[in-house]
């Protein structure tokens, strides 16, 4: 497996990996990510779902993919990990390592399972990111904890579900929750009290004010798990596991290319006469346009009443024709052309809701203000931005360090590689241009005042590239766990033991580990 990682890094300089091992030299935890996923993170790393799954290999290690969503609303991977235990210490190592691989950029929102070890690790590594819990994980426990209420009252399930999903503001949720607790005598229920105290991290009425790219449950992650199951199973040997993972990544990128092609070469069918629809069709990817179009069509079913004007802000009550509830409050600033809605769809998903669209159309605003067209949902989301290039370029230029110059050019080359492999035509075009560029670079004369730097790639990396160093290091497969499955008690016990081993390993073999981790840094 280590050989595989080393080969991948030698073939693709943007490949990143990191390994922790126990005292005997067995693999304990590892993380790896390919160059394409790192580039994708730069464009779509605003929301990340981090979900340890129980799709384990024969060594009973947890498989932990990092997933996000691209401009076609497809699940994409931002690297993955195999963990031998699930302690806070391990999760901290993993999240720090992952952040390092992702150019040090923290996600805006991180969605995880409701787990104490993960929660503490996220708070320490990503203190400024919004942290939400997967609603799916919490909801699946409801029948277990509330089976007695389910059996006693036929209407409970429906009412409880409405309270969780259909309340749009924290105030509405609080009223509905208190009513249900009283109605079914659940005020002292321990589990309900517990999930109520963390309501701001999982109840839609609270989390919808944070951008989540529309990801609120683990359905997305679950579908990714199903995808992996076609390639991986519990008897997959470790060495095959990582190569199979590559096949999953390749297959995902084929799907992305399909959607890119469809967006570029097909024409959207317009269903209304509103100019905003035509405008959106030209900017959004096909999938996001469909979502926007649905909001636009649905907006025609709503009516509004102006409540008042406060400091130039027009406030409206918006509801379905002949139905007073639910009612949404839209605030529109005509001068600045901005609007907010109590449903918070834009804040949560990044697409204007039907309620705002209804008002905007009524006011004859026929062009969407740019602030409502999030770049990450457009067909241009993966285009390298001129300001990114110029800021990074000027930084690299001013620092006069050949290592920084090298890394800057390499980072842009990775982005170029991704775009150059969208089709055979793109590939051949780029290849020819690169040959030409390469020739011109070789012919470019040095000027007398050129500052030639001598701060070459740092010594430790050079050491690590030597074959001598590679030969000195060997990594054993993780020890197999004899029992099938991992009961919680056993897992926790193993976790404690392994974390101690890893800790001891860190001091005993810190030199080795440092070397491996440095080697895994790749290009930044
Ligand atoms: Zn709305």
Automatic annotation (TrEMBL):
Keywords carried by this UniProt record: Metal-binding, Nucleus, Zinc, Zinc-finger
Q: Where in the cell is it found?
A: Nucleus
Signal sequence segment: none
Q: What's an example Gene Ontology biological process for this entry? A: regulation of DNA-templated transcription
All residue ranges annotated as the SWIM-type domain in the record? 328-364
Under the GO molecular function aspect, what terms does this record hold?
A: zinc ion binding
Region feature Disordered, mapped onto this chain: 450-524
Polar residues composition bias: residue spans:
458-467
Q: Where is the composition biased (Basic residues)?
A: 512-524
Its chief place of residence is nucleus
InterPro entries to which the protein is assigned, alphabetical = FHY3/FAR1 (IPR031052), MULE_transposase_dom (IPR018289), Znf_PMZ (IPR006564), Znf_SWIM (IPR007527)
GO CC annotations on file = nucleus
Q: Provide an example Pfam family for this protein.
A: SWIM
Q: Which PANTHER family match?
A: PROTEIN FAR1-RELATED SEQUENCE, PROTEIN FAR1-RELATED SEQUENCE 10-RELATED
Q: Which family does it belong to?
A: Belongs to the FHY3/FAR1 family.
Q: What does this protein do?
A: Putative transcription activator involved in regulating light control of development.
Q: Tell me the protein's name.
A: Protein FAR1-RELATED SEQUENCE
Q: Which organism is it from?
A: Solanum lycopersicum
Taxonomically, what lineage is the organism?
A: Eukaryota, Viridiplantae, Streptophyta, Embryophyta, Tracheophyta
């Amino acid at each position: 497996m280590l050989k595989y990682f080393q080969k991948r890094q030698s073939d693709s300089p943007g490949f990143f990996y990191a390994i922790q091992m126990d005292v005997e030299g067995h693999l304990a935890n590892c993380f790896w990510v390919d160059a394409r996923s790192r580039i994708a993170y730069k464009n779509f790393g605003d929301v990340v779902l981090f979900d340890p799954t129980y799709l384990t290999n024969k060594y009973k290690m947890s498989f932990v993919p990092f997933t996000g969503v691209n401009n076609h609303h497809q699940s994409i991977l931002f690297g993955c990990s195999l963990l031998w235990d699930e302690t806070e210490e391990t999760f901290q190592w993993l999240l720090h390592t992952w952040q390092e691989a992702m150019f040090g950029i923290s996600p805006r929102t991180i969605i995880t399972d409701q787990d104490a070890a993960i929660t503490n690790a996220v708070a320490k590594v990503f203190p400024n990111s919004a942290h939400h819990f997967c609603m799916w994980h919490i909801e699946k426990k409801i029948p277990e904890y509330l089976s007695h209420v389910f059996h006693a009252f036929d209407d409970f399930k429906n009412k409880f579900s409405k309270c969780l999903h259909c309340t749009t503001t924290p105030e509405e949720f609080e009223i509905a929750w208190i009513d249900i607790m009283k109605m079914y005598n659940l005020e002292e229920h321990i589990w309900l009290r517990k999930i109520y105290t963390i309501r701001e991290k999982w109840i839609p009425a609270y989390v919808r004010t944070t951008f989540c790219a529309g990801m609120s449950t683990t359905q997305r992650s679950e579908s990714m798990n199903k995808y992996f199951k076609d390639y991986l199973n519990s008897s997959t040997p470790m060495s095959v596991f990582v190569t199979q993972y590559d096949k999953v990544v390749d297959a995902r990128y084929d799907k992305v290319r399909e959607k890119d092609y469809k967006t570029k070469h097909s024409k959207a069918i317009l269903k209304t006469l509103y100019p905003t629809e035509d405008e959106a069709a030209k900017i959004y990817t096909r999938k996001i346009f469909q979502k926007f179009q649905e909001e636009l069509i649905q907006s025609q079913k709503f009516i509004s009443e102006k409540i008042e004007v406060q400091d130039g802000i027009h406030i409206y009550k918006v509801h379905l024709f002949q139905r007073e509830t639910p009612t949404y409050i839209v605030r529109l600033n005509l001068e600045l052309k901005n609007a907010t809605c109590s449903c918070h769809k834009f804040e949560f998903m990044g697409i204007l809701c039907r309620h705002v669209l209804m008002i905007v159309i009524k006011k004859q605003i026929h062009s969407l203000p740019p602030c409502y067209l999030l770049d990450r949902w457009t067909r241009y989301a993966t285009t390298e931005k001129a300001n990114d290039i110029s800021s990074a370029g000027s930084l690299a230029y001013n620092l006069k360090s050949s290592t920084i110059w090298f890394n800057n050019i390499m980072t842009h080359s990775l982005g170029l590689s991704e775009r150059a492999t969208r089709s055979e035509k793109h590939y051949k075009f780029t290849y020819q241009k690169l040959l030409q560029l390469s020739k011109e670079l070789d012919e470019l004369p040095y000027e007398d005042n050129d500052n030639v730097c001598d701060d070459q790639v740092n010594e430790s990396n050079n050491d690590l590239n030597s074959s001598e160093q590679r030969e000195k290091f060997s990594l054993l497969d993780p020890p197999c766990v004899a029992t099938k499955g991992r009961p919680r008690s056993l897992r926790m016990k193993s976790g404690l033991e392994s974390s101690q081993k890893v800790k001891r390993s860190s001091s005993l073999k810190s030199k080795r580990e440092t070397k491996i981790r440095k080697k895994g840094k790749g290009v930044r």
